[in-house]
Amino acid sequence: MRLKLDEQGHAVLQDGHPVYIHEDGKESPFNAAGTVATIQARNAEAKQHRERAETAESKLKAFEGIDDPAAAIKGRRLNSNSKTTYPAAPSRPRSATRPRHCLDVTACVPVSHRQMFRPSGKGLASEYRSQGIL
Questions:
Q1: pTM of structure
Q2: Where are the domains of the chain?
Q3: CB-based contacts of 20: which residues, under 8 Å, 6+ apart?
């Protein structure tokens, strides 16, 4: 492309923009401000795409080592359909629940464990009382 010049050697302007002549002879004005704005917009768009791709790649690293995604999904479904639930242990400070050394055996054992292995449903405390231990 070359700049179109008039008889006196000055650049020809069209709507305030210099006119360039292409190799095929077509003439077109060049809007430098518009071109710079377009380049800045494309750079911002490219930055957004790059950041989105980096975020996706960092999230994808959590799945490294999974060779068979279908088997992993199936295993996850089987695990989520499981009826077994494990309740969380109560969080109580030791000093608020019992003394450091327990003389009363039932005070040292949580309620859920007292009744765990008793087929009758009785707790250890009632069993120990019936045996005369407590």
A1: 0.45
A2: 2-79, 97-131
A3: 1, 2, 3, 4, 27, 28, 29, 30
